[in-house]
Design a protein that fits this description.
single chain; Cytidine Deaminase, domain 2; globular; Ubiquitin-like (UB roll); 6-stranded mixed beta sheet; 243 residues; alpha+beta; 4-stranded mixed beta sheet
């Protein structure tokens, strides 16, 4: 809170707007989100939901000129299924998000190699850098952040009022740059929920780390995917779940 001239109180707030997406001519989702990095949000969400597996699967993406929204076209086979399974939509635990969840853990994409546990001191340092980049967090405190890192430097960073939106933005940013998130480390500032763990597993990241903790479903998904989870990552005693 700041006190402007004249004594009136100015209350800090975080931008939040609705942004809609249609996929192959059908309504897919409306986000309540921070209104920046929107192409990254669209691409990352389509990737996390299984509509695309690479930038080349995005046949077209057109923004609406009158209001925040996008029309996207993807291959018909991708639109109908997720990893060959019929889509099932659920109300997820993360920020009221509606997401696609798999019918069983056997359908979780599994890594071929067991990932190494990253240097935990370096992970703390990367979180410190992530917090330092958070301009909106410094201004308001009411924002989530996510980043992809190779364990040495932050490669993609995003902030959003929704933690899942922040993750989708960094995934989308990586894909739009012509790169993939495979084998990278995902840093998130909020709880690791089951649906967030599934997004990470589908992206084939090696590690997901948070200053908070994972849910029990996230731990099960991570084990099925062969992915490491790190909770309490900025504390002196991080908690590590290995597959």
């Amino acid at each position: 809170m700041t006190m402007p001239p004249g004594g009136a109180v100015h209350l800090d707030s975080v931008d939040e707007v609705p942004v809609w997406l249609e996929v192959n001519g059908e309504p897919a989702v409306t986000w309540m989100c921070t209104p920046d990095q929107l192409p990254e949000l669209v691409v990352g969400w389509c990737y996390g939901e299984g509509y695309i597996d690479a930038k080349s699967d995005l046949l077209s993406m057109r923004p609406c000129a009158k209001e925040p929204g996008f029309w996207v076209t993807v291959p018909d086979a991708r639109y109908a299924t997720v990893e060959g399974q019929e889509r099932r939509r659920v109300l997820a635990s993360g920020c009221g998000a509606v997401t696609t969840i798999l019918g069983s853990l056997s359908q979780v994409p599994r890594r071929t190699e067991r990932p190494a546990i990253p240097d935990l001191a370096q992970t703390r340092a990367l979180f410190k850098e992530l917090f330092a980049r958070g301009e909106r967090y410094k201004e308001t405190g009411g924002i989530h952040a996510a980043a992809l890192t190779d364990g040495t430097a932050l490669l993609v960073h995003a902030e959003d009022i929704g933690r899942h939106n922040a993750v989708d933005k960094v995934m989308g940013g990586r894909l739009l740059a012509g790169e993939r998130p495979d084998d990278l480390i995902l840093l998130v500032t909020g709880r690791i929920s089951g649906e967030l763990a599934y997004k990470a597993a589908r992206a084939r990241v090696s590690v997901v780390a948070t200053p908070s903790v994972p849910s029990s479903m996230a731990v099960e998904i991570a084990r099925a995917a062969g992915m490491v989870l790190i909770g309490r990552a900025v504390s002196g005693t991080p908690q590590v779940w290995v597959p």
